[in-house]
Design brief:
Length: 379
């Protein structure tokens, strides 16, 4: 398809851009960081996001959403990335809503999706157990207990885990760590007996958590999808998450490039505008090219998801790997071309750099996705 937005998508982009620029500028993240906010996000901002329909952008209208699909969601994530907006949008509206839509029963969809769209329910995906992303490397046991299961183990890097009302826990009902067979997903209330959530502060001033489950009882009705057969649906939604985090990284890279370009046009050294220096022109040109390439691969990944194409895994891995590498380069250049002040907290370059480093690790770094892309291609 042509890598351009439709009129409706352009209107959504403009609305999202105006909202995040005016209502959730970078100063919002600074405030949350400096005040060491207990939640890590602004409840009033989240309510505005909900009222604009962004929380239900993936959810069909019959369940209270707007049904804009993956492309619409990616457009909103890009604009959120431009201002480093902190909210439960990714953990709840992308991963949570995506998994419930993909694997949930009709009863679960009817119960949970309207609550997500209305902002009433926050979710978090409890998947990772090691320091490196590998969705099949799950060892947490889900042992048969009466008519249900008993969950025991620990999950790391649970995005927004400390504010979630419901956890989507990936556990193993059979097999061993590394097997794609035998994985199951369960909906677990965050406040039930046996669940312990420890908030962790990440380098980008955003939120993750360590979630421990000690003999947590769940019923068969709490299973999300088929027992022992969760991997295909999990991977599909992880690809959605990868495309959306790539879109958010794209927004950050765009903001860094725009800010750096303005600085190069204004900053004088020895009485000369530094943007006239040939070496800096070359570096700025490379940043521009990287942003354009990233925009293309992100749009291609979101288009593939929208169209449910067979190459979704490959193009989402391509986007995640390519944008992760470009974001590292662009944020490094942004800091360096701001000179000494770029190393201080007086400007926002460091905030974008830290965020890009965390985003690059989420749902697989560039090495993970290069290897995955190669495997999918038969290499």
């Amino acid at each position: 398809m042509a890598l351009v937005l439709t009129e409706e998508q352009t209107m959504l982009r403009d609305m999202a851009k105006d909202f995040f620029t005016e209502q959730v500028p970078v100063t919002n993240l600074r405030k949350l960081r400096d005040e060491e906010d207990d939640l890590g996000y602004d409840k009033e901002v989240w309510q505005q996001i909900v009222e604009l329909g962004f929380a239900g952008i993936l959810i069909p209208e019959e369940h209270g959403g707007t049904g804009f699909g993956p492309m619409g969601l990616g457009i909103v994530m890009t604009e959120a990335g431009r201002t480093l907006a902190a909210s439960p949008l990714y953990s709840t509206a992308v991963l949570g809503a995506g998994l419930i839509m993909a694997a949930g029963s009709e009863g679960q969809k009817n119960d949970l999706l309207p609550k997500i769209a209305s902002g009433e329910l926050l979710t978090a995906l409890a998947l990772e157990e090691t320091n490196h992303h590998n969705p099949a490397n799950v060892a947490m046991a889900a042992e048969k207990s009466g008519d249900g299961y008993k969950l025991s183990g620990e999950k790391k890097f649970v995005i927004d885990g400390h504010i979630a009302d419901k956890l989507i826990v990936v556990a193993r009902t059979s097999g061993a760590a590394g097997d794609t067979q035998g994985l199951s997903m369960f909906l677990v209330d965050a406040d039930v007996k046996g669940v312990s959530v420890t908030r962790t502060h990440m380098v980008d001033s955003r939120n993750a958590a360590i979630v421990s489950l000690d003999g947590v009882e769940v019923s068969a009705d709490d299973a999300l999808g088929g027992i022992g057969a969760a991997y295909p649906e999990l991977e599909n939604v992880l690809d959605l998450g990868r495309a959306c985090i790539a879109a958010e990284m794209l927004g950050g890279a765009e903001a860094v490039f725009d800010t750096t370009l303005e600085y190069l046009k204004e900053r004088k050294q020895f009485g000369v505008i530094i943007g006239t220096f040939q070496a800096l022109k070359h570096r700025a040109a490379e940043m521009f090219c990287e942003v354009e390439i990233c925009r293309s691969v992100v749009l291609e990944a979101l288009s593939a998801l929208d169209e449910r194409r067979n190459d979704v895994p490959a193009v989402t891995s391509l986007a995640k790997a390519r944008v992760g590498e470009a974001a590292r380069l662009i944020t490094n250049e942004g800091v360096q071309m701001h000179g000494g002040i770029g190393m201080t907290d007086a400007v926002d370059m460091g905030l974008y750099l830290k965020r890009a480093r965390v985003q690059a690790q989420m749902l697989g770094d560039s090495n993970f996705h290069r290897a995955r892309y190669a495997d999918l291609g038969g290499y």
